[in-house]
């Protein structure tokens, strides 16, 4: 049997190997060093590890405080991701770090201890180092393993006059597609599977019905709607005493989103994402909002960062939502449903069928009432986006109708 010291050394060698492969992929973002605690307890205990990470951020318009915050957040996020912890509290922890001069914070949960160990200021960017004692995240639910499909349409731009400068009429499409790209890269089980090729003004009237309609049309369980309220540009002309200087331009970005369960139109997440960054183009430049040139600007990077945060927020919100689909067809003793291998369904899985009805109380308020069909159904054949089920015990499917619902817990 290996001694504790030998075991610890082997662990460190293994971690270093993984770290080198990780660093090869993320060399330009941050670097990591992990050291396991010297005291290793009994078998089955969750171990914490110290992680050191560096983050960098560009100083825009002389705003050093924002650059410092961005660099700290980047370092902490990379450390958490590398350690296997969740990143839902990154912003909260970062803000806590920056509130006081000693730059030390302790918290319960995955991050046990956190320190800002160093910051180095350069002419146009800052490098921040953090050191964190992190416990890897425990699996919270079985549903986290299932693919979550989301449908949306191009985000509505509320004031299209904001798109005149730069001539970016397709800005909403570009941002929506950038979100799809970031979601695919960042979240393993999260897919922006369907984007309706038009913008939609989601008013209050008929909202729930429209959400359910988009969910049915796309065969996606979740629906994301978004509205961009600000893409304006603010220009600061140099004073008459510094006429040789170029004017500075700042462009804003403000996005409001809602995420619904498309099956019952329940609101799961409502959030605003606001940022600003330098706009490097003059008043007369035509900008291609789909181009790499645009997305490599500080403004493009700032929006991309908001898309990454939006992805993390959605993932955190719906990770443990049970996978739900619809009954497509009832034929004899078999039913076909709108869940399949693309959703992680496989032969032998057990699903449950239920119906919903609307009831109205004496005050006129509407509620959904659920009627669960007795027993479980077993997947007999799983296909791409559908599956054929049979009742686990009796094989009877009486009273089940098309448009009923099926759930995998």
Automatic annotation (TrEMBL):
Transmembrane segments: none annotated. This is Lipoprotein. Residues 49-136 form the Flagellar assembly protein T N-terminal domain. Residues 334-408 form the Flagellar assembly protein T C-terminal domain. Residues 140-288 form the Flagellar assembly protein T middle domain. It comes from the Bacteria. InterPro entries: FlgT_C, FlgT_C_sf, FlgT_M, FlgT_N, FlgT_N_sf.
